Amino acid sequence: MSRIRFGAERGRAAARSLSFVVALMLSGAARPQPVPAASPTAPMPSIEIVVVGRADAYERLHALLDRRLSAVGSTTWSRAERVDAGEVLAASPRHALRCWIDLGDRRRARLTFAARSGERFLVRDFELSGDLDEIDRAAVAEVIDLSLGALLEDERAGLSRGETEALLANRAVATPGAPTPAQPSPAPPVAPPLPADAPSGLWRGRRFELGVFYAAELVADGLPIDNGPGLSLALSGETRRHVFGARLFSGGWTSARLLLPEAVTGTDAKVRLVGVAPRMGIELGFERLRLRIGAGWDFVHVSSEASSAALAPAGAHWTSMFACEAAIRFAIVDARSSHLWISLLADMLPAAVDYGVDAGGRFEATFSPWLVRPGLALELMFP
């Protein structure tokens, strides 16, 4: 009796292990202590926060910082058109601490802190990405925490009045139209460095993202399609490098996709296939345009059904195929809490696999997948 044979005539494919290393270049001194919570028996200090910038920036910072600073003191929030040097240098009878957050320049945050006495100050400047994303907002929050803590803990911390006048004068020179203090010092000191955990080094920050996706691929003539849902996990971050003036992102990813059941009917037999396709690789590109490359395996469960009494079906079994994958990804929706990507992808198999019938020593292919399989995927990512 002739038998159906599956998985015949496949070349060997050796896969060596893939390793992915993310180098983090960090600089700075030891991490300062965070802001201490006020004693339950002591009155809560009053803190004034003034934001100079767009209305949406004010709303984002207010939502992020108000609860965070509630353990330190009672906060009062407002918006302003500019930072008035005279107000910064004046003593405050109402507030123990005051903070101005100047976001007038989309790529730079300028923070100014003043104690109640009008004699001790802190001035912090650092770069932003340009769109005040979650990495930027976290950095601003951390610097505010540390700076307020320094002024609360140590009355001698920070800059003197003369040093602050000089720094504010330098800012005013760099910002046309801004008022200058009345008596700037002739030789301004170097501004104090940022905390060690402020964004620095090669990467501005890292973040994990969990994704759910649905992918479909053309696998052979006659339009059979491998399709199914999957899960992914990515670690990515913005680097300090720019290409053509645009920010560069890099990272690694891993995924697992379910290959939904598929049936292919030939002249003498029907083949049913179902499986899972794990992958892992690296990713490089811009904020909304990325390139992914990786590799993995297709684990496929094969079962058959003979259409002729003269044929005996082979038993159900698993096959495995090594595959490489490349994808060009576009972010079509970029919201605060999620990102929707569309991917043009292709799986590439180094060796052919034919599913067919062995009838009396004669092999007839029923299903011959392509070596290159183009596809499309939609993926929703959550930070």
Q: Would you kindly provide a written description of the structure presented here, covering whatever features stand out?
A:
The chain has 383 residues and is mainly beta. It folds into 2 domains: 2-22 and 201-382, Porin (Beta Barrel), CATH 2.40.160; 46-174, Rossmann fold (3-Layer(aba) Sandwich). It is 14% helix and 48% strand. The chain is built from 4 helices and 17 strands. It has helices at residues 55-69, 85-89, 134-153, 161-174; strands at 2-8, 46-52, 74-80, 97-102, 108-115, 121-127, 203-218, 225-243, 246-265, 269-285, 289-306, 311-312, 317-334, 339-348, 354-359, 362-367, 372-382. An 8-stranded antiparallel beta barrel has the order 7-8-9-10-11-13-14-17. A 5-stranded mixed β-sheet has the order 3-2-4-5-6, sandwiched between helices. α1 (55-69) crosses α3. Residues 1-39 and 176-203 have low confidence and may be disordered.
